[in-house]
Amino acid sequence: MMAIIVQVRTFLTLLGGAPTAPSDLQMALALAPVLVAADGGADAALAAGHMPQAVIGDMDSISPQTRSRIDADRLHHIAEQDSTDFAKCLQRVEAPLILALGFAGGRLDHQLAACTTLVNFPDQNVLLLGEEDICFLCPSELAIDLPKGTRFSLYPMAPVEGRSTGLKYPIDGLTLSPATRVGTSNEVTGPVTLSFERRDMLVLLPRDCLGAVIEALTGAR
């Protein structure tokens, strides 16, 4: 079992190295005030005027200048190369909800790896925040109330079946799979409920749905 580096009862902001607007980081910290950086995310944190409580990763991206400004006891070098820095962090932090920035922009291979990481850590409550969208691993059961007409996308990471209400195109009776049939660009028609036989489904929504998603995942208003 991995040693936990940061354990908090409040929400936590996890900052990666992909481009992130300082205003987005400020918004995330207003909701999740504990800041942890994944490797090169420390550069963005300090550039925006925020000192991370911890920096976790293989330390191949953090700049020497940033590293020199952070106390050594906040730097946690994880040398193994079998996992991404995002995964290294999720193995070593505990919080009721993690807002993850700097993982859904920049290089496409990094974005795809982040999606895989969400599926690999189903016990972590993680919301990926992008410039336009948010993404999270759907619980086995989800109920969320969103305005009619809201874009509601489902992206399976493995073959999975489920049931839905409140969507223009119901998924009942379908097998969704990344190689055959996905569920992107659906639309909300009323209160949405989803249930899945296994936790391999990602939900992607416009970023203005963030508050409703947090409430649905945690009960927090």
Question: Layout of helices and strands, plus pairs?
Answer:
Elements (H helix, E strand, L loop, with lengths): L5 E2 L4 E4 L6 H10 L2 E5 L2 H7 L6 E4 L6 H6 L5 E3 L7 H6 L2 E2 L3 E4 L6 H13 L5 E4 L3 E5 L3 E4 L6 E6 L3 E8 L7 E2 L6 E14 L4 E6 L3 H9 L3
Parallel strand pairs: 1-6, 2-3, 2-7, 3-4, 4-5, 7-8
Antiparallel strand pairs: 8-9, 9-15, 10-14, 11-14, 11-15, 12-13, 12-14
Report what the structure shows.
α3 (64-69) links the parallel β4 (54-57) and β5. It is built from six helices and 15 strands. The chain is α/β, with parallel strands linked by helices and 221 residues long. The model has no long low-confidence stretch (mean pLDDT 95). 23% of the residues lie in helices and 33% in strands.
What characterizes the major β-sheet? 13 strands, mixed
Envelope shape: elongated
Please count the beta strands (DSSP E, at least 2 residues each): 15
Order of helices and strands: EEHEHEHEHEEHEEEEEEEEH
The structure class reads alpha/beta
